[in-house]
Amino acid sequence: MAQSSSESSSSNRRNMIPSFLYGSSTKTLPVIHQIVSSGPAPSAAATPSLRGTGSGRFMIPSPKEPFGKIEMYSPAFYAACTAGGILSCGLTHMTVTPLDLVKCNMQIDPAKYKSISSGFGVLFKEQGVKGFFRGWVPTLLGYSAQGACKFGFYEFFKKYYSDIAGPEYAAKYKTLIYLAGSASAEVIADVALCPFEAVKVRVQTQPGFARGLGDGLPKFVKSEGALGLYKGLVPLWGRQIPYTMMKFASFETIVEQIYKHAIPQPKNECSKGLQLGVSFAGGYIAGVLCAIVSHPADNLVSFLNNAKGATVGDAVAKFGVVGLFTRGLPLRIVMIGTLTGAQWGIYDAFKVFVGLPTTGGAAPAPVAEIAKE
C-alpha cells in the first residue's frame, strides 16, 4: 500500500499540465511514461484502462506529446503560434484596409462620410483607387507585430495560468483561463501596435499629411515627439483588451459548442477541412461580439490619433454617448466579423500545416487518477 500511495503521489505531480485545454488528440501514452523516473511503474494488472481499449493499461493524454515534428508547449510550439499570429493578423488587416479607411473617416468626419456607400464614393472621387489602400504599410507591420504577441502570448499564458490553477480548477474555470490569458497577451500586443496605429490613423484621416509609414512616422514624431506615438495607448487598451478577451473566450466556447451540438462525431474524427471550417465560423461569430464590445473605444482611438492635443472629454463632447456606441458600428461589424473569422481560419490552417492541432473544441475531460490498491 505504501508503494501504491507513492506511485499515486508521483503521478499526480506529473499530471499537473492540463492538456485538455489545448485541443483533442487520439494519441495517448501509458501512465508509466508520466511517472517520475525515480518512481516504479505500476503493473498493468493494477491499473485499469481509462478509455476501454482492452489493453489493461491506464491511459491519459500526454501533456507534451509531439504533433508532427513540433513538441507541444516547447519553444518551437510557441514560435509556430507566433508565426501563425503574424500571418493571421497582418494579412487580414491589410486586406480590409479600404473598409478600415472608410470607417475611420466616418468616425472623424460624419458630415462628409455619411454612410458606407457614400464614404467609398467620396474616397474614390477625391483620391482614386490608390486612396483605398492609403496607410497599408503601417497597417501590415503594426498588426503583424500585434498578432505575433497576441497569439503567441495567449498560448503561453493559457498554459501558464492553467498550470497554476491545476487540472481540477483549470477545467472548472476554463473560461476565466481564456479571459486572463487573452487579456495578458493583449497588454503586450498593444505596446507593439500603438506607434503604427497612430501613424496609420493620421495618414488615413488627414489627406496630405503623408503618403505612408516612411514619411509619416518621422513627421509624426517631429510634430508630437516620440511619446506622442503612445498617447493613444490607454484608449487602445480600452478597445483591444475587451475585444481580445471576447475574441478568444467566445471563440473557444463557440467552437466547443459547435462540436458538442452541431457535429455528430468527435473533433479528432473530423477532417482537417471541417475543423478549419468550424474555426472560421466560430471566429466570425466571435468577431461580431468583439465589434460591439470594443466599438466605443475604437471611436476614441480614431479621434485621439487624428487631432493634436485632443482629450477623451473632447471626443465624448463631439460624438455624444450614443454616438460612441453607434457611429460606424454596422461597417465595423462586417469588417471585424470577416476579419476575425479569417484570422482564426489562417491561424489554425498554419497550425495544421506545421503539424499542430487546431484551437479549441475539446470539452475538458475529468482528470483520471490511478486506482489505489
From TrEMBL:
BP-aspect Gene Ontology terms: mitochondrial phosphate ion transmembrane transport; phosphate ion transmembrane transport; response to osmotic stress
- Cellular component per GO, a single term: mitochondrial inner membrane
Determine if DNA damage is one of this entry's keywords. no
Give the way it sits in the membrane: Multi-pass membrane protein
Record localization: Mitochondrion inner membrane
Ordered alphabetically, the record's keywords are: Membrane, Mitochondrion, Mitochondrion inner membrane, Repeat, Transit peptide, Transmembrane, Transmembrane helix, Transport
| Cross-referenced InterPro entries | MCP_dom_sf, MCP_transmembrane, SLC25A3/Pic2/Mir1-like
What is the protein name stated in its UniProt record? Mitochondrial substrate carrier
- Name the protein family: Belongs to the mitochondrial carrier (TC 2.A.29) family.
Record's function text: Transport of phosphate groups from the cytosol to the mitochondrial matrix. Mediates salt stress tolerance through an ATP-dependent pathway and via modulation of the gibberellin metabolism.
Q: Which organism is it from?
A: Medicago truncatula (Barrel medic)
